[in-house]
Structure formats: C-alpha cells, structure tokens
C-alpha cells in the first residue's frame, strides 16, 4: 500500500509539472489566433523632375554676318550670354552690347563650314570653365544637357539662321503637400523576427487595412513607397506592433509614403 501511494504521488507531481510547463509555453507570433492589427496608409505625390536638353544646329559662315548673335541662358551660374560673331575683314565693332547679358566673341570667316562654326562656338563656350550644362557635338549639331532639374529659358537664334530645338523640357521635382488615402496599396506583415513578409493585404478605398486571426507576439507591418528625389528607388515605411492579449485589436496608426 505504501509503494502504491508513493507511485500515486509521483504521478500527481508529474501531472502538475506537465500542466505548469504547458502553461508556460511561449506563444509565437503567427496565424491561428484571435487578435488583429489594423492601420491606415496615406501618401503625398512625388513627380521626378527632368533635365533640359537643347540643341543648336549651325549654318556655314556664308550665312553669317559680322555682328550676328544668338542667346543662351544660364550658361555659368545664373549668367545669361549672347554669342556674337566677328569677321576680321570688317573694321566696325561687332559686339551688339546687349544689356543684362555677357558677350562672348566668336571669330569666323565666310568660308567656314557649318561644322567649323559649330566647333568654334563649342570651344569658346568650353573656355568659360564650369558650365551649367554638358556639351556634345555631332557634325553641326551642338547638344546642351543641363545638369539641374529645372525649366531653363529657351535659347534664341537672335539674328542668325541657326535652328534652336528643345529636345526635352526641364522641370523641377514636385513634392506634393496634400495627403491622400492610398487605396489598393499592398501592406506586408512579418512574423516575429522574420525578414521576409509572411502575409499581405490591400487597403480599402479609405486607405484602411487589417490583418486578422493573429496570435500573441510581435509583428512588423510595412508598405513600400518612392524615395525622392530618385524615381527608381523605393523606401520601406514600417511600424512594429505587439499583441499581448488575446481577442484584441492593435492599431498602428498611419503609414505615410511618397507615391
């Protein structure tokens, strides 16, 4: 009888240990629970700017006159220039002295070809040093690609017969200030310390989202938006949510992105 009671006590103790150990098992984050995480995604508009590209097509020297000129804007810093042509056979002054601009003299002959005129202009501009654009010469076509994203005032052929073309209109980056609700936006959920998402949902028309049937634990919620000023790069906007009680809803608030 004594041995029987001893075994019975051991059995009870084991049962208690099993119950205690079961009660102490950690609840890992993941599906199958009774809680939820909700939030909202909003955004501000981002439109990347563009570089201005201008092209000048030059004529040959026979179509130029002593004192002819054309206009270029923002050549060095904010300085605007006029490029004028001087023929050594003339004794009169070629410089038209245009107010508010800097003059740049190019010496030419009537026998010069259009490619020689183009090269002479390119060399004269390059001698200024640090320019607001890069230059590329192809035969008689000089292409100016501005370095900053902005709308550059158009060049003007002045008194020449040069052709002036705007290949691409420059514009500055646009960063909107109006906040809108992002509908149909993908929202991702990572369980615990996972680096890759285990679940995803889409926002409704008001930008709201909810992950349901979650267990107690810690989660990362994130969305992906643009990364100004680089249109081809993206950034992750995230929040950490901790569920500590069953049958609860954890609201992480607003995740705001650029779109």
Could you name the key traits of this structure?
259 residues; mainly beta; Immunoglobulin-like; 2 domains; four-stranded mixed sheet; 45% strand
Shape: rod-shaped
Topology as a string of helices (H) and strands (E): HEEEEEEHEEEEEEEEEEE
> Low-confidence spans: pLDDT under 50, at least 5 residues?
10-25
The biggest sheet, with number of strands, parallel, antiparallel or mixed sense and barrel status, is: 4 strands, mixed
How many DSSP H or I helices? Answer: 2
The structural class is mainly beta
Question: How much of the residues is beta strand, in percent?
Answer: over 45%
Number of separate domains = 2
Distance between the termini: 80 Å
**DSSP summary, beta strand count:** 17
- Binned, the helix content reads 10-25%
Oligomer: single chain
Report the radius of gyration as a whole number of Å: 36 Å
Look at the structure and give the mean pLDDT: 91
Topology:
Elements: H1 2-23, E1 31-44, E2 46-47, E3 53-57, E4 69-76, E5 79-86, E6 102-107, H2 114-126, E7 133-138, E8 141-146, E9 163-168, E10 174-175, E11 180-181, E12 186-191, E13 199-202, E14 208-214, E15 217-227, E16 230-243, E17 249-258
Parallel strand pairs: 1-17, 5-6
Antiparallel strand pairs: 1-11, 1-14, 2-10, 3-8, 3-9, 4-5, 7-8, 12-13, 12-15, 15-16
């Amino acid at each position: 009888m004594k041995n029987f009671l001893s075994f019975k006590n051991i059995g009870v103790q084991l049962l208690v240990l099993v119950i205690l150990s079961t009660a102490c098992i950690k609840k890992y984050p993941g599906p199958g629970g009774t809680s939820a995480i909700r939030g909202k995604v909003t955004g501000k508009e981002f439109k990347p700017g563009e570089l201005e590209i201008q092209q000048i097509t030059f004529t040959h020297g026979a179509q130029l006159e002593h004192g002819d000129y054309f206009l270029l804007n923002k050549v060095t810093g904010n300085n605007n220039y006029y490029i004028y042509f001087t023929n050594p056979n003339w004794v009169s002054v070629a410089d038209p002295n245009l107010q508010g601009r800097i003059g740049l003299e190019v010496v030419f002959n009537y026998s010069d070809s259009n490619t020689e005129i183009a090269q002479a202009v390119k060399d004269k501009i390059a001698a200024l040093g640090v320019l607001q654009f890069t230059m590329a010469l192809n035969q008689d076509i000089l292409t100016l690609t501005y370095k900053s994203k902005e709308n550059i005032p158009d060049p003007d052929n002045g008194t020449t017969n040069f052709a002036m073309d705007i290949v691409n209109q420059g514009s500055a980056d646009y960063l909107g200030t109006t906040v809108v609700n992002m509908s149909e936006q993908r929202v991702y959920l990572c369980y615990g310390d996972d680096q890759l998402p285990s679940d995803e949902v889409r926002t409704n028309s008001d930008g709201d989202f909810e992950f349901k049937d979650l267990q107690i634990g810690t989660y990362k919620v994130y969305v992906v938006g643009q990364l100004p000023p680089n249109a081809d790069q993206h950034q992750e906007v995230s929040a950490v949510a901790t569920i500590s009680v069953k049958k609860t809803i954890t609201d992480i608030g607003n995740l705001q992105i650029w779109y």
